[in-house]
Amino acid sequence: MVTLKAHILPHPDLQPPGCRGSGKRLFDKALPNDENKLRSLISDLKQHGQILLVVDQPATIGALPVAVARSEGVLVGYLPGLAMRRIADLHAGEAKTDARDAAIIAEAARTLPHALRTLKLADEQIAELSMLCGFDDDLAAQTTQASNRIRGLLTQIHPALERVLGPRLEHPAVLDLLQRYPSPEKLASLGFAG
Predict the structure, then answer these.
(1) Global pTM value
(2) Average pLDDT over residues 140-161
(3) In principle, which of 59, 74, 126, 162 could form an S-S bond with 155, CB 3.0–4.6 Å?
(4) pLDDT digits over 113-145, tens only?
(5) Measured CA distances, 69 to 27, 40, 53, 139, 143 (Å)
(6) Transposase IS110-like N-terminal domain location, by residue (predicted)?
(7) Torsion of the alpha carbons at 26, 28, 33 and 36, rounded to the nearest 10
(8) Cα separation of 171 and 10, whole Å?
(9) Do the Cβ atoms of 50 and 15 come closer than 8 Å?
């Protein structure tokens, strides 16, 4: 189970959720992964002032808190990944934990408001498209890995055959040929002499 941790620090102009003007944390634990519990938490925090919800992953783990916050009229901010990594480099330690990430996001909301982006519907759609492109990138990487594996096997079995077929592995006819005739002997049985 993935948890989203909230660690809140005071912000001079706009208090993030879970802060009092004194800077005392009102909330420092994993956010509930339940719509009703999130609504209740937001309602409780609204009693202490205006709320700003900042996430670093609006389309995945942060999607539910973002949707609930929006429906409750809460301002939503986004800390882009590159900004998050650069800010994280300024903090001690290198461990990647939810608590550390939450502290970094809260600190950025408090001290570096210019690093935050307003999360609009278009941003969510871009994030979803980025995720789909990521799937495409994964598929392309797997295709390349399989092609390299086949070329490696061809090099071990018959280097001359790899020099001929290797650069053309993406062609359906070459793949069909290798499926029907998976060894040099079976290819030779076709009777074609080059």
Answers:
(1) 0.49
(2) 91
(3) 162
(4) 777 777 666 666 777 777 778 888 889 999 999
(5) 16, 11, 7, 34, 40
(6) 22-159
(7) -10
(8) 60
(9) yes
